[in-house]
Design goal:
It is built from three helices and seven strands. It has 210 residues and is of the alpha+beta class. The longest helix has 55 residues, at 155-209. The radius of gyration is 33 Å and the shape is elongated. The two termini are 35 Å apart.
Amino acid sequence: MTPARPRTGWRAIVHALALGLSTGLLVLVAGLAVVLVVVPKATGSTPLTVLTQSMEPTLPPGTLLVVRPTPIDDIRVGDVVTYQITSGQPAVISHRVVSIASSSDGSRTFTLKGDNNALPDPAPVTAAQVRGVVWYSVPDVGLVNQLVNGSRSWLVPTMAGVLLAYGALMITLGTVSAARRRRGAGRSGNGGHGRRRAQGTHRAHRATLG
């Protein structure tokens, strides 16, 4: 049996492109799922999206922020803190701590300022307003976060569809490759059988002549 010949020409290019695109898409979807869903859920963090220019150039609009709950006593000057504009209300701001004040009863308040702002935020931030400290950020992924958090019901079906499509592609490519190998083996076997039959006929003819 002769070994299967390697793919050449446009078939090899199409195969390589299909494999590369499917693998890249799978890795991209899995990576986004980890960044946007798995890590925040496992750590109790909150994914947020930067919408304004107040923290440029460090955190431009569209940046994904993952905000992790942090004890008030562990917050330091230089941390980027996410806080509620009004305690108990959903609207939040993420700015950098520029100073910390402690009162006689042990409570702390924070003065925050956007990196791109000329002045600090107008009112000190109390402990009750603090949602957490920015743990890490990912540029340009915030818009994806907006879509995911806007309707998470589509995320799992989409991931399942991508995985199924990837699996189907791999099965199809494997089936086509196996079929080509079988056809090649069949042609090789038929050729060998034909040669053996021709050799036997030739020997019989020589014996008759002798």
